[in-house]
């Protein structure tokens, strides 16, 4: 068996094209373009690249991007004051605070200051709570993007065992909630889990979001499983690696995401989608992409 690739670039391009058409139609009706405020604190090279990619994606679909690049030594109260100002700015529909933040800033405290209706990353406790209650509004970008990828390959959820490796608030926990809503039986593994291979071998659907190169060995993968690799690490030689031992896993899985080109593009596309929803372009219960 050789696994088929789940092409995140292609699915993301389809979603972005759909978003672009929605924005064009609304502008023709006299509505202003959606506005996304992007905040970068400091000079972290990876964060700078992520922010640039997100701003370019906004340009591609017609979202107005407002950029705030702040010094790494900014005080927490100054950052909170900026967020409060953006919360009250009627031209700003979404607020994206790029993580990680410098040590002097409490990320949870600052994220809690973002208006939940403008929380396009889906990190606010209110939005995660809505997801836990099966009443989602703005959903966490990476987990929801993964669900769109799985829907694209017509993944079956009910009666399937989904195993998630990693329990962060950004990916692992909301991913578990998404898969529970879809009807899967869900196991979440983390740093205190004993015998990780045992759980991975049971997975009909495996999602790994650890950020440690090839921590998931190919021989652990269940025959015919769907494997989603969220992790991405740059090696010393400049090459990129995922959490999963790709070539060995591909011999056993039915479907697998590549690194790069799998989950990453969907995270950005869902950010744009969430910005449209925050702007009121999309009803919260509308099937707006034909996938979910």
Class of the largest domain, according to the CATH hierarchy?
Alpha Beta
Helix share, percent: 25-40%
Shape: globular
DSSP summary: helix tally: 10
Query: SSE order, as H and E?
Result: EHEHEHEHHHEHEHEEEEHEH
Largest sheet: 6 strands, parallel
**In order across it, which strands form the biggest sheet?**
1-11-8-7-5-6
CATH superfamily of the largest domain: NAD(P)-binding Rossmann-like Domain
The CATH topology label of the largest domain is Rossmann fold
Class by alpha and beta content: alpha/beta
How confident overall, as mean pLDDT?
95
- What's the CATH architecture of the largest domain? 3-Layer(aba) Sandwich
Distance between the termini: 29 Å
Radius of gyration (Å): 19 Å
Amount of beta strand: 15-25%
Total E-strand runs: 11
Number of domains: 2
Low-confidence stretches: none
Description:
- Pathway: One-carbon metabolism; tetrahydrofolate interconversion.
- This is Bifunctional protein FolD.
- Its EC number is 1.5.1.5, 3.5.4.9.
- The protein has helices at residues 8-28, 45-61, 76-87, 107-112, 125-132, 141-152, 172-182, 196-200, 246-250, 264-278; strands spanning 4-5, 35-41, 64-70, 94-97, 161-165, 185-189, 205-208, 226-229, 233-234, 240-241, 255-256.
- It is globular, with a radius of gyration of 19 Å.
- With 292 residues, the chain is of the alpha/beta class.
- Strands 1-11-8-7-5-6 form a six-stranded parallel beta sheet. It has a three-stranded parallel beta sheet with strand order 3-2-4, with helices on both faces. It has a two-stranded antiparallel ribbon with strand order 9-10.
- The chain has two domains: 29-126, 3-Layer(aba) Sandwich (Rossmann fold), CATH 3.40.50; 140-264, NAD(P)-binding Rossmann-like Domain (Rossmann fold, 3-Layer(aba) Sandwich), CATH 3.40.50.720.
């Amino acid at each position: 068996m050789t696994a088929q690739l789940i092409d995140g670039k292609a699915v993301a391009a389809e979603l972005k094209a759909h978003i672009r058409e929605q924005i064009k139609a609304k502008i023709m009706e006299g509505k202003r373009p959606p506005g996304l405020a992007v905040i970068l604190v400091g000079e972290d090279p990876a964060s700078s690249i992520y922010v640039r990619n997100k701003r370019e994606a906004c340009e591609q679909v017609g979202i107005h991007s407002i950029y705030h690049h702040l010094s790494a030594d900014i005080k927490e109260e100054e950052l909170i004051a900026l967020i409060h100002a953006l919360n009250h700015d009627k031209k700003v529909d979404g607020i994206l605070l790029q993580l990680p933040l410098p040590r002097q800033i409490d990320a949870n405290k600052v994220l809690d200051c973002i208006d939940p209706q403008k929380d396009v990353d889906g990190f606010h406790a209110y939005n995660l709570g809505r997801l836990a209650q099966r009443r989602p509004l703005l959903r966490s970008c990476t987990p929801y993007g993964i669900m769109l990828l799985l829907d694209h390959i017509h993944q079956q959820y009910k009666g399937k065992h989904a195993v998630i490796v990693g329990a962060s608030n950004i990916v692992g926990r909301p991913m578990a909630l998404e898969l529970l809503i879809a009807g899967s039986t869900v196991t979440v593994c983390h740093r205190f889990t004993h015998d990780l291979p045992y759980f991975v071998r049971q997975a009909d659907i495996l999602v790994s979001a650890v950020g440690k190169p090839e921590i998931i060995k190919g021989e652990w993968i269940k025959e015919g499983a769907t494997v989603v690799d969220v992790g991405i690490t740059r090696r010393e030689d400049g090459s990129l690696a995922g959490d999963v031992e790709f070539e060995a896993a591909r011999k056993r899985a039915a479907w697998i995401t590549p690194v790069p080109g799998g989950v990453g593009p969907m995270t950005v596309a869902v950010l744009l989608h969430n910005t449209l929803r925050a702007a009121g372009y999309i009803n919260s219960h509308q099937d707006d992409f034909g996938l979910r």
